[in-house]
From TrEMBL:
SUPFAM superfamilies (UniProt xref): alpha/beta-Hydrolases
InterPro entries: AB_hydrolase_fold, LYPA1-2/EST-like, PLipase/COase/thioEstase
Residue runs in coiled coils: none
Zinc-finger listed as a keyword: no
GO MF term set: hydrolase activity
Record carries keyword rRNA processing: no
Family: Belongs to the AB hydrolase superfamily. AB hydrolase 2 family.
Phospholipase/carboxylesterase/thioesterase domain: residues covered: 15-210
This protein's UniProt keywords: Hydrolase
Name of this protein: Phospholipase/carboxylesterase
Matching PANTHER family: LYSOPHOSPHOLIPASE-LIKE PROTEIN 1, LYSOPHOSPHOLIPASE-RELATED
Domain of life the protein comes from: Bacteria
Pfam families documented for this protein: Abhydrolase_2
C-alpha cells in the first residue's frame, strides 16, 4: 500500500527561509476536508519562537467534500490504523526533507491530530512533542510504542465535551493509551463541539511555552 507524498509547494511558513535558522519548528496538520490555510490562522496565538509550517494533506476526499484528507474515512467507524500510519510516514518524509535537524513538534486538529500522534509513534526520535486537538490515538501496536512508554514525551490532548464527531470507542482508547505512553496534559472543554476554543488556545500556548523552556533547560545542562 502506497501513500502520496506531501507537496512542498503548498506549505505555508510563518517566516522566510532566511529567518528559520535552527529555531524549533511546529508543523500544523489540518483536519478532514480542510487545507494548509485553515490552522495557519492559529499562528498569532502561538509562541513567536517557533517557526510554523502548515502543510496540506496529500489525498482528496470523495466529491463533494472540499479540501484534502490524510486518510480515507468510510463512515464514522471506518478509520483504518494502517492508513493513519501511511499518512504519518508521509509527514516524516516531508519533515526529513524540509526541516532537517531542527527540533520538531506537531499540532494537529481532528484527523490531523490522529496523524500527529501516529507520527510520534512511528518515529519517536523525529518528533519531540505533539498537540492533539479533537483527535485520537489509532489502534494497534507500533514499534515506537515501547520507546514512548519509556521516554514519555510531552503530549497535549484537548477535546470538547460536546464533540460527537470522534467515536466514543476511540476517545476511550486514547484515554487509556496516552497516560502510559506520554507525559500527558490536556483538558476536556465543557460545551465545546468539534472545534477549538479560546480557552483551549490558551492552554496550547502554555504547553508550547513549556516546551520552549524545556529546550532552554536542555541547552544549559
Amino acid at each position: 500500500m502506497s501513500h502520496p507524498s506531501l507537496d512542498p509547494s503548498v506549505v505555508r511558513w510563518s517566516v522566510s527561509p532566511a529567518e528559520r535558522g535552527d529555531r524549533p519548528v511546529l508543523v500544523l496538520l489540518h483536519g478532514y476536508g480542510s487545507d494548509e490555510h485553515d490552522l495557519f490562522g492559529l499562528v498569532p496565538y502561538l509562541p513567536d519562537s517557533f517557526v510554523v509550517a502548515s502543510v496540506r494533506a496529500p489525498l482528496a476526499p470523495p466529491w463533494p467534500t472540499p479540501g484534502a484528507s490524510w486518510y480515507p474515512i468510510e463512515g464514522l467507524d471506518g478509520r483504518d490504523p494502517a492508513a493513519v500510519t501511511l499518512a504519518a510516514q508521509a509527514v516524516l518524509a516531508w519533515v526529513q526533507d524540509a526541516v532537517g535537524s531542527a527540533r520538531v513538534g506537531l499540532l494537529g486538529f481532528s484527523q490531523g491530530g490522529a496523524v500527529a500522534l501516529q507520527t510520534l509513534r512511528v518515529d519517536p526520535d523525529a518528533v519531540s512533542f505533539a498537540v492533539v486537538l479533537a483527535g485520537y490515538a489509532a489502534g494497534g501496536e507500533l514499534p515506537g510504542d515501547a520507546v514512548l512508554a519509556q521516554r514519555r514525551p510531552p503530549v497535549f490532548w484537548g477535546r470538547g465535551a460536546a464533540d460527537d464527531v470522534i467515536p466514543a470507542p476511540l476517545v476511550d482508547l486514547t484515554s487509556q493509551w496516552l497516560p502510559g505512553h506520554s507525559e500527558l496534559s490536556g483538558r476536556v472543554y465543557p460545551g465545546l463541539t468539534h472545534s477549538i476554543s479560546q480557552d483551549e488556545l490558551d492552554d496550547v500556548r502554555a504547553f508550547l511555552d513549556a516546551r520552549l523552556a524545556d529546550q532552554v533547560g536542555a541547552a544549559v545542562t
